[in-house]
Design goal:
Blueprint (H helix, E strand, L loop, with lengths): L10 E5 L28 H12 L5 E5 L9 H8 L7 E6 L4 H11 L3 E5 L5 H8 L4 H14 L4 E7 L6 H12 L3 E6 L24 E4 L4 E3 L8 E2 H4 L1 H10 L13 H4 L2
Parallel strand pairs: 1-2, 1-7, 2-3, 3-4, 4-5, 5-6
Antiparallel strand pairs: 7-8, 8-9
Helix pairs in contact: 2-3, 3-5
The chain binds iron/sulfur cluster.
Length: about 270
Amino acid sequence: MFDCFNRKINYLRISVTDRCNLRCTYCMPAEGVKMLARKDILSFDEILEVVDYGVKNGITKVRITGGEPLVRKGIVSLISQIALYKEIEDLAMTTNAILLPEFADDLVKAGLQRVNISLDTLNEENFNKTTRIGDLNAVLRGIEVAKKAGLNPIKLNCVIKKSSDSSDAQTVAKFAKKNAFEVRFIPEMNLGKGEFGIVEGGDGGNCSICNRLRLTANGQLKPCLFNDLSYNIRQLGVQQAYNNALGNKPLTGQKNKTGNFYNIGG
Ligand code: SF4
């Protein structure tokens, strides 16, 4: 499928929950967040309807995100159903790795190919400051288990404030190199201010070649992360939501005053 600027759109990012077992400062406000009501969260059948239409119209890459996708009950079963689509060449997940020891083997059996794991620092104090409630060792255990389970490649998503020259970023880069992982340096973003940059080592944030649509956990199909436009699949139906998202996808990101990273999935 192509958008209104003739960009090829073949990548669907699916947020399966707005819940998370971390409270990262650049994602969740200190005062906490109002979670979506269970009735507003898409069922697996509804998510599969969006996948089905997308795959039949050119989607070949699917990424499962959150919040933290592994907190969504039955996530392995959803992965196994998405993996049945032979047209999907790339089925990946973005996770904070904490629950990977419990799920990694089953995810691989279900057809998950690879993971991006959030890791901004290997300094315990900085990790605690950034995640508020996290345990760095639990993340490192999750990374180890992902490697053993055969999820490959493993890419580390490292959010950077200013530059990838920071000691935290450089330590993560060394860790990645030592383990034959890839690293992505993601400039800290601000939706409301429209602050974002191109991901070092990835293609996120490069609007001229943007190839993605996002589905939020409550069924909004979003043409762009840095824009308020979204089309509700329950109200419009899947086909109309896709048509609207493709027909109104902005040339470049601006500001997103209505969404949050934890319910869009970055
Ligand atoms: S800001 Fe919007 S158009 Fe630009 S890369 Fe991100 S999603 Fe695509």
